[in-house]
Design goal:
The protein is of the alpha+beta class. The chain has two domains: 3-236, 2-Layer Sandwich (Beta Polymerase, domain 2), CATH 3.30.460; 242-300, no CATH class. The protein is built from 13 helices and seven strands. It has a five-stranded mixed β-sheet with strand order 1-2-5-4-3, with helices on both faces. Helix 5 (146-160) packs antiparallel against helix 6, helix 5 crosses helix 7 (182-194) and helix 10 packs antiparallel against helix 11. The longest helix is centred in the N-terminal third of the chain and has 25 residues, at 3-27.
Length: 315
């Protein structure tokens, strides 16, 4: 069997599993919306397997997290070790391996991104209201509208993954932009301006132009041209450091919440520490917290540059 044939068959099994999960999420009242690569594979690519992806990103109602996590565990999914906190993280990864040995990975989001600056520029409620339903393997799948999908694609590539670039993300932007109608372009600009993300949207469109010669109306580029006063433009800064991102997040919060965010970064839950560092003794916890803070100091102040290639496990 050729590599492409294996990819197609694996994709079919993974999509079937995704539709099963979506039905269960609906029953749990989560009103799931599939977005990013898992959605675009079915709406903007000729064949879904041509849009490679590691996991499926699902946006759920924030208040449904507890029943959703319980439901996923009942379906055989396990939550991966991940930093958690009310302010530091707005997503949770789940995985399971089926009887065929095929891995199924889900990234459950209740906000579109983790950085405070952009985490609520588009909420679940409004994206749900404007979503559309497509048929995938004869099952319904709710996905973002084309305009919202392009906004999210532009935000995602700079805010969610600050230290690497993946060509497929630019291709997503290219395909989304190519399919927009004039009225949709006007809506896109209006939302980018009103949500203060015009700079990151302009950068995404310009990257698509440079790589794929994407045709974008001149008035769109002109309208998105001003970057003044946009906190989200920090993601386009050359040599951006993690500490710079943290400062921008703190500025987006009130002082008490900002202090809580810093604490969540420095002192994640004990369960995470034990799993991440491989120890069981509670007495060792302070030692590992101190080591985390010490080693983290160097990482927080290290300058990051956007690379041409991304890790294998990325959306």
């Amino acid at each position: 069997m050729t590599g492409d044939a294996v990819t197609v068959l694996t994709e079919a099994v993974q999509v079937r599993e995704l539709t099963r999960v979506l039905r269960a999420l609906e029953d749990a009242g989560a009103a799931p919306v599939v977005f990013k690569g898992a959605a675009l594979a079915h709406t903007h690519y000729s064949e879904s397997w041509r849009r490679p992806r590691y996991d499926a990103d699902l946006l759920i109602a924030p208040e449904s997290r507890v029943p959703v996590f319980a439901m996923l565990r009942s379906l055989g999914y396990e939550q991966r070790v991940f930093v958690s906190g009310d302010l530091v993280m707005y997503q949770a990864p789940f995985e399971r391996v089926d009887h065929l040995g095929i891995e199924h990975a889900l990234d459950i989001h209740w906000r579109i991104a983790n950085p405070q600056v952009v985490s609520q520029v588009l909420t679940h409620d409004e994206l749900l209201e404007r979503s559309v339903t497509v048929r995938v393997q004869e099952a319904p799948m709710r996905v973002l509208s084309s305009v919202d999908a392009l906004l999210v694609a532009c935000v995602h590539r700079v805010a969610h993954h600050p230290d690497f670039e993946k060509p497929i993300w630019i291709q997503d932007i290219h395909l989304l932009a190519t399919a927009l109608e004039p009225a949709e372009w006007r809506t896109f600009v209006e939302r980018a301006v009103s949500r203060s993300i015009r700079a990151v949207c302009l950068d995404g469109l310009q990257q698509a132009q440079a790589r794929f010669q994407t045709e974008i109306p001149l008035e769109v580029l002109t309208s998105l041209g001003s970057r003044r006063g946009e906190p989200s433009a920090i993601f386009l800064r050359a040599g951006l450091r993690p500490i710079d991102r943290l400062v921008s997040d703190c500025r987006a919060l009130r002082p008490v919440a900002a202090a809580r965010l810093v604490r969540e970064h420095l002192f994640p839950p004990a369960d995470y520490m034990r799993a991440a560092y491989g120890f069981n003794s509670r007495a060792l916890l302070p030692v590992y917290y101190a080591a985390r803070v010490w080693t983290g100091m160097f990482k927080w102040f290290a300058r990051q540059g956007r690379l041409k290639a991304a890790p294998a496990k990325s959306t």
